[in-house]
Design a protein that fits this description.
Blueprint lengths: L4 E7 L3 E8 L4 E9 L6 E7 L5 E5 L4 H14 L9 E8 L10 E2 L2 H9 L8 H14 L5 E5 L9 H4 L5 H6 L9 H14 L8 E7 L3 E7 L2 E5 L21 H9 L4 H9 L3 H6 L4 H10 L4 H26 L4 E5 H6 L1 H8 L11 H5 L6 E2 L8 E4 L4 H14 L7
Parallel strand pairs: 1-6, 6-8, 9-12, 12-14
Antiparallel strand pairs: 1-2, 2-3, 3-4, 4-5, 7-8, 9-10, 10-11, 13-14
Helix pairs in contact: 1-3, 6-15, 10-11, 11-13
């Protein structure tokens, strides 16, 4: 291979996040993001490891222009797309369906299949495709790999992946549970086992990925056996703007009684639900601040918090039943890593399941992987920062090198 550096691209509908990672030591020579692509003024930020942050606002017309800007920023640091140290470009792709169970070298057939999956991921796969096609044009000589959010969850047993609807209809329209945030769940479950001094193949972990999007997974010996998200990222936990689990008949009711269209109901559940729908704020930090301030503004924030935590506790209990034996519960992502009150409330009263948090350990300021349960607890409760980009870079390099690196 040409080197050990992998450029990881996460291309969203109006943004590009990127990190250049050296998989040999986990270092990050550069990274950044571009937001508000296609708007009148876009925001660009570049963070080189050996220099000050560079920021500016200017129009960025489309994803092609955005990735050209990324290439230019890297070139300024001597890290251009033609540099000999760049081994590959790894792309985050949200939906891989049932076909893509592993990181995959991108060719025309792969891009065609990703496009075929657009109907089940209309908000994500088109943007991912735009990033892939632009990167292929900018760096045709650099190997490019797709790493799929759904891949880690393809080990779900059929009884966990199936919905109880007519199988002919389900198969014809690819209706089943796929799960998402897979790179995070893979990384965190493995990192949690290492934190406990155990092999991932011998460790059962419940992973709680709690960000603006949120999902839970039951991981038995390194293999996902259940996860909260389904056909789309809407199912499961309460999220920033997504409702999570809901009676499907709510859709029929709102159509018949409120006269709402399918698009209006989609908007209600995906963009106006969750914490935002319950209290008007989709940011858990603001929800907690409102609760602390008290007054008239606190009641709806408290309700949103309680609904959020109740759903979370239900999934933890369910996954205890699915796994049979739980060695650890791992909190990760923005809320999971930083909101001590969420962790404390989620584990409150779980002593019968062997779970508890130590209040001092839980609230102590820290940034790395750590155990926050009392010493001697039957189930370790851990806070494990996720690193989806490093997971994508590692999987990309492993595919191209034909070997398995020592993963962190």
């Amino acid at each position: 291979m040409r080197g050990t550096r992998v450029l990881v691209l996460n291309t969203g509908s109006s943004s590009v996040k990127y990190r250049l990672l050296d998989v040999a030591d986990g270092s990050c020579p550069a990274g950044g993001l571009i937001e508000r692509i296609g708007e009148r003024t876009s925001y660009l930020r570049h963070d080189p490891a050996d220099g000050p942050r560079r920021e500016r606002e200017e129009p960025v017309a489309d994803h092609a222009a955005a990735l050209e800007a990324v290439a230019d920023e890297l070139e300024c640091d001597g890290l251009g797309l033609d540099s000999p140290g760049l081994a590959a470009i790894g792309h985050r792709v949200v939906h891989g369906g049932r076909r893509f169970t592993e990181p995959t070298l991108i060719d025309e057939a792969v891009t065609a299949e990703i496009e075929r999956l657009v109907p089940v991921a209309p908000l994500h796969n088109p943007a991912n495709l735009a990033g892939i096609r632009t990167a292929l044009a900018l760096a045709p000589g650099v190997p490019q790999v797709a790493v799929f959010d759904t891949a880690f969850h393809t080990t779900l047993p059929e009884y966990a992946a199936r919905y109880a609807i007519d199988t002919a209809v389900a198969d014809a329209h690819r209706v089943r549970r796929y799960g998402f945030h897979g790179t995070s769940h893979a990384y965190v479950s493995r990192r949690t086992a290492r934190l406990l001094g155990r092999e991932p193949s011998e460790t059962n972990v419940i992973v709680l990925h709690l960000g603006n999007g949120a999902s839970a997974s039951a991981v038995a010996g390194g293999r996902c056996v259940d996860t909260s998200m389904g056909l789309t990222p809407l199912e499961g936990l309460v999220m920033g703007t997504r409702s999570g689990d809901i009676d499907p008949a709510v859709v029929f009711h709102l159509s018949r009684v409120a006269g709402m269209s399918v698009d209006e109901i989609d908007e209600l559940l995906n963009r106006r639900g969750g914490l935002l729908g319950l209290c008007g704020d989709n940011d858990m930090r603001e929800v907690l601040r409102r609760m602390d301030r008290g007054g008239a503004d606190a009641a709806s924030a408290r309700l949103a918090f309680d609904v959020y935590v109740h759903r979370l506790r239900k999934y933890v209990g369910a996954y205890c039943a699915v796994l049979g034996r739980v060695d650890a519960v791992a909190f990760t992502a923005g809320v999971g890593e930083n909101a001590a009150p969420v962790r404390e409330a989620a584990m409150a009263g779980m002593e019968g399941l062997g779970m508890a948090v130590d209040p001092e350990l839980n609230r102590a300021p820290a940034s790395g992987p750590r155990v926050v349960s009392p010493p001697g607890s039957r189930v370790a409760v851990a806070v494990v920062p996720t690193d989806e980009e490093l997971e994508i870079a590692t999987q990309t390099h492993e595919l191209l090198s034909g070997g398995t690196m020592e993963r962190k």
